[in-house]
Amino acid sequence: MATENPTLSNGFITKYSDIFIAVAIVTIVIMMIIPLPTALLDLLICVNITLALVIVMVTIYNVEALDFSVFPSLLLVTTLFRLALNISATRLILLNGYAGDVIMAFGNFVVGGNALVGFIIFVILIIIQFIVITKGAERVAEVSARFTLDAMPGKQMAIDADLNQGAITDVEASKRRLKIQQEADFYGAMDGASKFVKGDAIAAIIIIIINITGGFVIGMLTRNMTALQALQSYTLLTVGEGLVSQIPALMISTATGILVTRSASSKGNLGLDVALQLFNRSRIFYIVSGVLLFLAIVPGMPGIPLGALSVLCFIAARRLKGSEKAVEEVPEQKKAEKAKADATKPENIVNLLQVDPMELEIGYSLIPLVDTGQGGDLLERIVMIRRQCALELGLVVPTIRIRDNIQIKPNNYIIKLKGIETARGELMLDHYLAMNSGTVFEEVPGIETTEPAFGLPALWIAEDQREQAELNGYTVVDAVSVLATHLTEVIKMHAAEILGRQETQNLLDNLKKTNPALVDEVVPEVLVVGEVQKVLANLLAERVSIRDMETILEVLSDYGRATKDTDILTEYVRHALARQISQQYVQNNVLPCITLDPGLENHIAGAVQRTEHGSYVSLDPDAMQRLLASLNAELPKLTNMGYEPIVLTSPAVRTYFRQLVERSVQGLVVLSHAEIEQTVELQILGTVRI
């Protein structure tokens, strides 16, 4: 990523840079229209050479390509500038037979005043630029652009994976995504900008042919020159002008090649990379020294230069050999010193006390699920799970650490909460899980298993059986979906444990951005963060979303001064969230449920014990057994018809009835009449009695 130069951040050039660029482009256009004095043309030619040198030096000293991300646009401007100089010089050559001292010097001094030699040198420069450098740079830019675009999805997924695992922050992730986008834009622009260099080389060939032909005709017809004089004079000037133009063009072509061929693994500028990679093995220079020495003693070969180079290579090899030994000794010495220091200093026990909120341990056979290089998308699924939990529950799930564990079976995985195993399952890669949802009319062969999230009987089937199983009525999912579903259910089931005081504070801080008055009124004036957290945890324990924090805090503000009992406050909040709770369970405006006998409700209400620490219910064992027996007898009236097990009670006993049965009847939903909208029709299918 391009970095700001602090020495220019407030300087004159940076302050008026937009004006300079605009004036420069307008000046280039004017140069094509208005004839220039020879002195001004000499100055602009020198500016062109200087600019080319600066660009080459910048590309050499850049660490990565994006440090010079403006290069494609600059390449267009310099190409236009060079063509404008060609036009101005051509105009002066054809009109006056003279185009300034710089062009004359290149025509006389550089090529010795010989037009033929100059023409040959010009052709060689064109061949080097057009066929060698430009063609190669164009191909590298094209391939780099294609590969960069192809690699974008993988890089984005890798960033999401690092962010999900907590390896990087949101800010760092944004910077990396921006850099990936800039790389794609840069190499795409370079793919097109390389065509400017190619077109410039072609234009130079055409211009020199036109200049020689035009000068030859003008010299003979208007200046009374002989054919030989006209050819010598105008060819010399044209070749001088071509060399003046093509030498900067060659430098910029070289800069283009350097920029697009820089590797992403570069450790510094070009010179440092060359030094590190070219002079890193002494054996190579020993071999080269020996070969040069052999050539030096061959009869007819120039012995002195070859012998001198052989000696230089031998000296370089000796120095590199000493450096290699020093490099090998330093790490060993540091390693020994570190081991000695570690052995003497006390162990830092504090680091061992860190407990991850959530962990996912996988066997080594399941590693492909998290390896994006092998097509694994579990990390992306986890990002989607966290987003889904935020939308459905209003809970920001903490970072889920993923580790491989060789101590468990290869196909097993373990889900941990705060370091304690909460759930585990088994997957078979390259297989699909087929579940009978009650619509199967013909079974398929497979490996019997149990779906881990809901405990349903299922089959592992091969990939070629998938289509047939779906036709037979099975619900078929892949292995990663099984794990993702299990992880989602574990999060929903234990959401109350996941929500701690810090997470609650984060939710309050987020609400404070839009409604600071409400947050300041409740916390800490009415309730402390811990009491708010207990209310939210009570809601999550029954899978009630806490996303509507504004309504929740308004209720706590209204009733928090009257009572600090978090169970009672939770009931008030549930009443305020009646519409949300109703929509969660109502189907077609009908709520199928079973109710409690009024006598049972009175019995429960009479058994409530209130203390300074809260309220609880205590039934005698006989009444408790009869209650559970009646409940278990009534629930099949709902579940056998495909309905969710819902018990409807009066508001006064809802929380106490749930306390009685929550451990004995898993998945039971207990609602009160105050949590059901008046427009909802109740379909009572049974009554619990004792």
How would you characterize the largest beta sheet?
Answer: 4 strands, mixed
Number of helical runs? 25
Shape: elongated
If you average the pLDDT, what whole number results?
83
Structural class: alpha/beta
Poorly predicted runs of 5 or more residues: 6-10
Distance between the termini: 73 Å
The largest sheet has its strands arranged as: 2-1-3-4
**Portion of residues in helices?**
55-70%
**Strand residues, percent:** 5-15%
**Total DSSP E strands:** 14
Radius of gyration: 40 Å
Q: Count structural domains.
A: 5
Question: Mind sketching the topology for me?
Answer:
Blueprint: H1 12-15, H2 17-33, H3 38-61, H4 71-96, H5 101-110, H6 115-164, H7 170-222, H8 227-261, H9 270-278, H10 282-296, H11 303-344, E1 358-362, H12 378-393, E2 400-404, E3 412-417, E4 420-426, E5 431-436, E6 447-450, E7 457-462, H13 466-471, E8 474-478, H14 479-493, H15 495-498, H16 501-512, H17 516-522, H18 529-541, H19 549-559, H20 566-576, H21 578-585, E9 590-596, H22 598-606, E10 608-611, E11 614-617, H23 621-634, H24 636-639, E12 646-649, H25 654-661, E13 669-672, E14 681-688
Helix pairs in contact: 2-4, 3-4, 3-8, 4-7, 4-8, 5-8, 6-7, 6-8, 6-12, 7-8, 10-11, 12-14, 16-17, 17-19, 18-20, 19-20
Question: How would you describe this structure in keywords?
Answer:
690 residues; alpha/beta; Glutaredoxin; 5 domains; 4-stranded mixed β-sheet; 14 strands; elongated
